[in-house]
């Protein structure tokens, strides 16, 4: 299985994928799957397939609340976002474990080849963590947004079985404030610690759940799934299959669309514009460089010139390979101000 991870900030390479590839993005605590629309021009790689599969899932550490949980629920650790991401990725890619503090410090993404599809999972750290503060939280959300641009197919809200406190409710409020209310149309609730249900069914658990959880499930169109990240490998793969089927149904219900509201809206366009400008700059640079080499009197033989030109072409190719990442870095401040403006309005109200 091909699993890769990038811990530092970089953009997903979806724009550069050959047409036969279609990645799936996942974000943990809130996971998101999105399908590109078929009339996209040029069509998104995944739009080229008759049955459009989820392209990206963000398995949602969109919200990390470890410090708050520590206040209210002693010895409470993470909800299992990284563990769920690892289950989906089929490998221990992200750090997961018992800790009084959030283990995941930075937004990170990893991809997996799953049944011929590229699955992109975004794991975010301490988001909405007041200990980190608003600027750090905004920065991590920005990375998450850029990782999953032009928008994820699904947000996976990861909650352990037996827990739905005021913290989870606040988290949901924050997600909605950041991404817009329609985010729930792209949301699946993933209950971790499925084994704690023992002989009970998830339906029975939900039937007896607190009204606030029932209402949240209803908002998410009844989409929920119980997962055990402690299951053996074969069982985990079976769970991933079921979860993906659920996500695919949701994506089809959403007219195969990925989540592209609010903050995602013009980011894709800006990314493209910035990338086009950079492409032009680098193409001009290459042309000038080649001209200088051709007219360089100190280079005696044609072989010498050809070698220099080849080197210049190589440098150009390298820049082109990283063009989307560079474009993302260029618009980072813009995305940051978008997120900060939105989140700043509710941050102090929710976390006071
Ligand atoms: N029994 C059981 N334990 C689980 C399950 N999922 C996660 N865990 C455990 O719960 C603990 C926390 O899981 P993480 O994946 O680190 O949780 P997280 O939400 O990413 O946590 P932070 O990154 O610290 O915020 C770890 O010890 C996991 O092994 C599950 O389905 N069953």
Automatic annotation (TrEMBL):
Provide a Gene Ontology MF annotation, just one.
GTP binding
Question: Mind telling me which InterPro entries this protein's record contains?
Answer: G_AIG1 (IPR006703), GIMA/IAN/Toc (IPR045058), P-loop_NTPase (IPR027417)
Pfam families, per database record: AIG1
Which ranges of the sequence are coiled-coil?
A: 299-329
Keywords attached to this Swiss-Prot or TrEMBL record, sorted alphabetically, are: Coiled coil, GTP-binding, Nucleotide-binding
Q: Which PROSITE patterns match?
A: G_AIG1
In this protein, which residues make up the domain named AIG1-type G?
66-268
Can you tell me which family this protein belongs to?
Belongs to the TRAFAC class TrmE-Era-EngA-EngB-Septin-like GTPase superfamily. AIG1/Toc34/Toc159-like paraseptin GTPase family. IAN subfamily.
PANTHER family according to UniProt:
GTPASE IMAP FAMILY MEMBER 7 (PTHR10903:SF170), GTPASE, IMAP FAMILY MEMBER-RELATED (PTHR10903)
Q: What is this protein called?
A: AIG1-type G domain-containing protein
Q: What is the native source organism of this protein?
A: Oryctolagus cuniculus
Q: What is the lineage of its organism?
A: Eukaryota, Metazoa, Chordata, Craniata, Vertebrata
